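Re: beginner question about structure tokens

> Can someone show what the tokenized structure looks like for a real chain? I only ever see the sequence side.

Sure, here's an example I had lying around. Input first:
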Amino acid sequence: ELVTDTTPGAQVAVGLRVKFDGVTQELYDALTEELDVENEPIEGLVFHTAGPRSDGSWGVIDTWESREDYDRFEEARLLPAFQALAERGYNVPSSRPEIKEFPVHTYIKQ
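And the corresponding structure tokens:
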């Protein structure tokens, strides 16, 4: 499925590049398990990718239906999940992630 809008300046979604300082693969995997996305899908999330960055931090590139959807997810699910992991002894980031936002003109679902 091709999702696009040919109106000049239109965007069909928002892309977010998210950099988490101090997040390791172990912490990311624990966070994914804590979020239980298979049983509790994330509203507004179109596509998610994650992996290590060259500087040793963990990075995410997401496509969301809107920035508001991401902000609601961060407040309602992501930050509480980090807190739950901290209470179980994980070393979680003390600050919010660095986020770079960009408009998405087109995406393809296969």
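Each token stands for a local structural state, so reading them left to right follows the chain. The chain is about 30% helix and 35% strand.
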